[in-house]
Amino acid sequence: MKLPVYDVLIIGAGIVGAACATACAAEGLSVGVVEAEIIGGGATAAGMGHLVVMDDSEAQFALTRYSQTLWQRLSAELPPDVEYEGCGTIWVAADAEEMRAVTEKRYFYESRGVPAEILDARALHEAEPNLRAGLPGGLLVPQDAVIYAPCAARFFIEQAQSRGAQLHHPRVVTEIAPDGVRLDDGTSIVAQSIVVAAGTWSAKLLPGIEVRKREGHLVITDRYPGFVRHQLVELGYLRSAHSLTSESVAFNIQPRKTGQMLLGSSRQFDKDSTAVDHAILGRMIARAEEFIPDLGCLSAIRTWTGFRAATPDKLPLIGPMPGYENLFLATGHEGLGITTSLGTARLLVDQLLQRTSEIPTAPYLPGRVYENVHA
Amino acid sequence: MPDAVSITVNGAGIMVPSGTTALAAILSTGASTVRRSVSGALRGPLCGMGVCFECRATVNRRRHSRTCEILCAPGMDIRTGNYAEEHVDG
Questions:
Q1: Is the ipTM of this complex over 0.85?
Q2: Are A299 and B64 in contact (CB < 8 Å)?
Q3: Distance (Å, rounded) from C-alpha A252 to C-alpha A227?
Q4: Mean pLDDT in each 10-residue stretch from start to end of chain A (375 residues)?
Q5: Do B62 and A297 touch (CB under 8 A)?
Q6: Which of A162, A120, A111, A160 has the alpha carbon at shortest distance from A140?
Q7: Whole-structure pTM value
Q8: What residue in B sits closest to A299 (Cα-Cα)?
Q9: Is residue A294 less than 8 Å (CB to CB) from chain B?
């Protein structure tokens, strides 16, 4: 039995696949989506949902900034359960040396059109009274925001369906074939183009592509409205995020619209267990307490783990896969997939339709790492 | 009162026997509820053993404390429901 023929078949209904689905459907393409488990149930649900402009490379900046402006434009249309909150980010400096880095960071953002405001010690304390006394300051990036990402993924899938897309769910793709995919129920789906948006599962579907699982731990508290008011991230965060070998922790706390506090972050490679590792969780909380001494007065109600889809050069894989006919990737977003889902969807649609994108696409093309793996 | 402990519940000073839980102290004032849910419903204690989280109140400024698990100590400041909301810092 053969199912309908699609212009585009998207594997994975996380936030990236979901955003791609609705963007393709909006162009009038016929779209199928295959999801093995729950819509937005992987890294989309596990992560923080921080919409953040990053400055660690020009390519990362371009995609996060492009995506953030798309989120801002979309925010009025998002349903209430997506909990879009324009709370902004404060990058917190721990010492005088980091405070000098704040000045550089501000210059980076401002010179690229992103508003950013330096907070001195007093302004930081006024903005966030629960940060410890004596911190030298930080950088407020007011246009950053927070969402509840699994509901955003569901919203995108429903929007895609209202535009004619079909959801095949729950179905596991067992094989990618030249003319489509085979599913675990023995059926096949025929499609002109296939998009692999399967996050950490992408490497399993396409042996040879380098997407590694990078585990993170999270803690959510009971409701303490106003305990922190912005997403607070230590300025040293990138040191943690960029250490490719060791496990690392960094202070990262987010106020949810519910009044709950969501605490991250940790990074560990090559772990398969989803079980909470209390040693690294303890280190993560201890790191946060160095910034927020009263954190221990909050009651945690749940801890969990999730897996980021990490690439070797810290940039996602968006575009045609060399060596295949009509196979595209939209994966490898590591910790930025919520933010960059919207930009990814735009770039992907542009490539499917052979249009020029609004930002340069070369840094994200799979061809930068893979040369005819399959050929 | 032998081994009595002096505490306040919603700003009013009371004496309770040593070994009294914060929850029992609240109930001794005649209250049967301790807080409101997110949707505004009145909530009161259920399990009495730290599992159901229904008895949460603010104890010594620590919000969401399970009062059934805390023994009264001299000078303890217990605040419930609307009183706790309206008297966060003082």
A1: no
A2: yes
A3: 14
A4: 81 98 98 97 97 96 98 97 97 94 96 98 98 97 98 98 97 94 95 97 91 96 96 85 76 96 93 91 97 95 96 96 94 97 98 97 93 52
A5: yes
A6: A120
A7: 0.91
A8: B64
A9: no
